Amino acid sequence: MKLIGATASPYVRKVRIVMAEKKLDYQFVQENVWADDTHISASNPLGKVPCLVMEGGEAVFDSRVIVEYLDTLSPVGKLIPTQGRERAEVKTWEALADGVMDAGILARLEATWVHRKDSERSQAWIDRQLLKVNDSLKSMSQGLGDKPYCSGIHLSLSDIAVGCALGWLEFRFPEIAWRSEYPNLGKLLDKLMLRPSFADTKPS
Fold it and tell me: Crossing angle of helices 84-112/157-172, nearest 10°?
């Protein structure tokens, strides 16, 4: 398998962590989708990463689809429950974490996209997205409480998704002081960073 992505992307990082935890072999191909010479549309018509290209050449895209597929490839370290309320809980955590990243990226693009003039940028839009980030962090902290992991007592996709969101916020929004406001989230991220899958994929 070939994974097309960028080391700074939190969605790509989520897939890379799942592959590491599942002990799956793959080739990592870095791609800057914002570059004029990007070829990502040849594999993903949406022009996004991550994109997983199979041995036969067919592509799977969107991180949620990819990680669900990967979890079926090996019985090692099952990350997503197969059915019922437990499955819905893990997928809801993933949706919440992805939503943090979605909102954060929209805010960052509004503030930094080079093809937009300063006069065209909307602070109200940025504030709206960052409010979603702050509300979601509060919800994450409340949902985690004093539990060792987001969904029960073992690592699951919930923790991987949340860890990727928190790590990306530290990377791109260091001014957001979420660690002081939600110390249980900081404790979770610190614990996750002890795992090689997280340490080896720290965004850069």
Answer: 10
Portion of the chain with pLDDT greater than 70, in percent: 100
Tokens read off for 13: 């990082």
What kind of fold does domain 84-195 have according to CATH?
Glutathione S-transferase Yfyf (Class Pi); Chain A, domain 2 (1.20.1050)
Secondary structure class of 129 (helix, strand, coil): helix
Write out the residue limits of the CATH 3.40.30.10 domain(s) in the chain: 2-71
**Segment (H or E) for 127:** helix 123-144
CATH class of 2-71: alpha beta
Whole-prediction pTM: 0.96
Question: pLDDT tens digits, residue range 121-160?
Answer: 999 999 999 999 999 999 999 999 999 999 989 999 999 9
Taking the C-alpha atoms of residue 86 and residue 137, their distance in angstroms, rounded to an integer, is 21
Rounded Cα distance between 53 and 161, Å, is 22
Q: Start-end ranges of CATH 1.20.1050.10 in the chain?
A: 84-195
Nearest to 97 by CA among 201, 202, 196, 14: 14
Tens digit of each residue's pLDDT (9 = 90 or more) over 157-170: 999 999 999 999 99
pLDDT value, residue 49: 98
Query: β-strand 2-5 against 27-30: which pairing, if any?
Result: parallel
